[in-house]
Amino acid sequence: MPHKLRVLVAARAGWRCEYCLAPEAIFNSPLEVEHIQPKESGGADEAWNLALACRSCNGSKYLATTARDPLRGRMVRLFNPRTDGWDEHFVFKARTAEIGGRTAIGRATAARLRMNGPKQREARRLWMLLFSFPDAPPIAYGGDDPC
Ligand SMILES: [Zn+2]
């Protein structure tokens, strides 16, 4: 992936995972650029099909484009960071540090991407202490990017 494209995707995302909002500034490696529609099923290697994602979300999403809504049981498409609004589909629950789904798409995506495992919730509790997560961290990343 060309460096300029990676920087474009990261800057557009505010250097945060576009699914769970994990901030790149507190990781010891860059977040990943993932294909919303996987390359394996014809997804383009272009900005409109790319999203910034943490290892956890990207690894859990893998080749999926749909998932089951755990509340209603039907298959729905996953959240698309290019066309969907985060606040429309997700809600952060500070008491439990969980990301909940407001919609079938939000619920299915949170479940498929395993956004609420013990490690994810523990990290969010620390981020809440560090910078009032889900607000963005005060560190504006985007300096020297080794990619
Ligand atoms: Zn994530």
Account of the protein in words:
It is built from 5 helices and 6 strands. By secondary structure, it is an alpha+beta fold. It has one domain. A hairpin with a 6-residue loop joins strand 3 and strand 4 (75-77). The longest helix is centred in the C-terminal third of the chain and has 14 residues, at 118-131. The structure holds zinc ion. Zinc ion binds next to helix 2.
Short structural description:
The chain is α+β, with helices and mostly antiparallel strands. The chain has one domain.
Rg is 15 Å
Portion in strands: 5-15%
What's the pLDDT, averaged over the residues? 93
SSE ordering:
HEEHEEHEEHH
Helix content: 25-40%
Give the overall shape. Answer: globular
Distance between the termini: 9 Å
Instruction: Give a list of the ligands.
Output: zinc ion
- The domain count comes to 1
What's the count of strands?
Answer: 6
Numbering strands along the chain, what is their spatial order in the largest sheet? Answer: 1-2
Which structural class do you get from the secondary structure elements? alpha+beta
Please report the number of helical segments.
Answer: 5
Q: Uncertain runs with pLDDT below 50, 5 residues or more?
A: none
For the largest beta-sheet, the strand count, sense and barrel status come to:
2 strands, antiparallel
